[in-house]
Amino acid sequence: MSDLYLAIKEMKHAKLRYSLIIFTIFLIAYLIYFLTGLAYGLANNNRSAIDHWDAERIVMSQYANKNLAASELQAQSLPTIKGAKKNRAYLGQMMGVVSGAKVKKQNTSVFGVDFDAFLKPTLIKGRLPKATREVVVDDSLQDIKINQEIQLNGRSEKYKVVGLTTDHRYNTQPVTYLSLKDFRQMRYGPTASDQVNAIVLRDGAAIKKDDQLTNLTIKQLIDNIPGYGPQVKTFALMIGALLIIVAFIVGIFMYIITIEKTTVYGVMRTQGISGGQLVSSLIWQSLFLGLIGVGAGLIGNLLTTLVLPVSVPYANNSLLIGAFSAVLLVMTVIGALFSIWRILKINPLDAIGGGLMMSLMRLEKITKRFGSGDQQMTALNQIDLTIEKGQFIGLTGPSGSGKTTLLTIMGSLQSPSDGQLYFKDREIGHLTEKERSALRFNDFGFILQSSNLVSFLTVSEQFELVDRLRQTPSPNKAEDLLKELGVLEQQRQYPASLSGGQRQRVAIARALYGQPDLIFADEPTASLDSKRAIQVAEQLSAITKKTGQTIVMVSHDERVLAYTDQVYIMRDGQLTDK
């Protein structure tokens, strides 16, 4: 799980940067949850009374344009209804205003029902009406209690509240339930007979088709509640837009971070860490960021439900919240995937400043050409070279002479145009990228000009990373190497807090840690003062004699080259022995 280790270590190191991403995800997640709560609360307030019916269809006048309040039917004039009588129920509906002594005026939706039919409300307190002008009201109507008298629509008649129900709203208004008789008298006057707004059917009950009637499913009725459809679509568009925005925000953040870490990623690629491991680390990072941000959003949403006034139409639906949380996490990961192509395109040569390093082996007639036709250029011309075990080899020459190209081919960063390249008698000139990464990881060590330590790992963690990637502990002890190179006391520090000489000595220790057969040092003393440069050269020379490892070093410093066993000079694509 080295990719998981890298993800966690980098996030701990750059707390502020990743905290900003988490905070952004939290804000978007919280906004999505808040809008979802409002949308679901408003939707529930539009339809909750209907949901309690547990019905299948509703029949109303065709002239009502699917509007329940505008429909008017004569119950006795309806066509034949099939099914048991218990599966049909007449319904009256109108908008009204509740008032009374010590009761402020409030809007209500008035339902006229038969309290012996299935449309009767479930009570939380009191009883169902038995006498004239007795009503049941939703408990969200303020200042209303059992046995209290109220008035409807300013009429002189008083209605006694005998029962309370909860979560019974229609078109956002609390419902007041009357008997059908009381409803007809209130709406149509004392001469009313059998007028209703609709008939509700369930359990397979059906009515004979009639051109004067509109037969709707319950879902169609809900969708035609005034304002309900546009309201739901508006919230859905807003939430959908936020989900897309979170993917772009995370994608932009991750892409910028990836660009900033190009050098670090290049160092890791040079050490043999595959692009797949870096991509996996990126995905783990995005998943952690998403989990923390979404988790914080969920906590914020929970706190919101505790402090919002009851009058605010806010309600959570666990299925919706769970679904949006999952989608948020997916979008967060998708946003991070925008950076994958950038990681996979990282060239170790570009990341470390144009190429430098690498290995020792046997080169036979190695030639490298660039371009074609009249534009073709020969960078290396039939190079022959053999480097033995335990040698300390120096390589020098003017800029543009071909040193970089030679080293990139020796280091398996690119293939030669012609010739053979052998390592331990294995031809490695034309390996796949995966095979080259494995070769660099298992057999080569690298010391670069700028040390190129992983910036978000401490000195000791640089070695822990090597162990995790190899999945086996190194035979060397990091503490012994650090002590020998004089940087043991800095093992808990990050690279940024070390001096240039200390960083370079840590890089040497890291290169030695896995006991690679070949170590490549590219201008390892270029950024050091004269005293430190000589010390590094002495240490490299001592390593070859003590361990039998081979070192190939590029340098322009004659004082440093004096510590090598053999110096080669590159000129115009050809190699000569100094």
How would you describe the overall organization of this protein?
The model is unreliable at about 355-360 (pLDDT under 50). Helices cover about 40% and strands about 20% of the residues. It is α+β, with helices and mostly antiparallel strands. The protein contains 17 helices and 25 strands. A 6-stranded mixed barrel has the order 4-5-11-7-9-8. The chain has a 6-stranded mixed β-sheet with strand order 21-22-23-18-24-25.
Principal-axes shape call? elongated
Taken as a percent bin, the fraction of beta residues is 15-25%
First and last CA, distance: 47 Å
* Overall average residue pLDDT: 85
Radius of gyration: 40 Å
Largest sheet: 6 strands, mixed, barrel
Which structural category fits the helices and strands? alpha+beta
Given the structure, what is the number of helices?
17
Give the low-confidence spans.
Answer: 353-358
Work out the helicity level: 40-55%
Instruction: Give me the count of strands.
Output: 25
Task: Kindly report the spatial arrangement of strands forming the biggest sheet.
Answer: 4-5-11-7-9-8
How are the secondary structure elements laid out?
Elements: H1 2-13, H2 15-51, E1 57-61, E2 73-74, E3 81-82, E4 88-100, E5 103-113, E6 125-126, E7 134-138, E8 149-152, E9 159-165, E10 169-170, E11 173-179, H3 180-188, E12 195-196, E13 198-201, E14 206-207, E15 213-217, H4 218-223, H5 228-260, H6 262-270, H7 275-307, H8 318-337, H9 340-344, H10 348-351, E16 362-370, E17 377-386, E18 392-396, H11 403-410, E19 418-423, E20 426-427, H12 433-443, E21 444-447, H13 459-470, H14 478-484, H15 500-513, E22 518-522, H16 530-547, E23 550-554, H17 558-561, E24 566-571, E25 574-577
Parallel strand pairs: 5-11, 7-9, 18-23, 18-24, 21-22, 22-23
Antiparallel strand pairs: 1-13, 1-15, 2-12, 3-14, 4-5, 4-8, 4-13, 6-9, 7-11, 8-9, 10-11, 16-17, 16-19, 19-20, 24-25
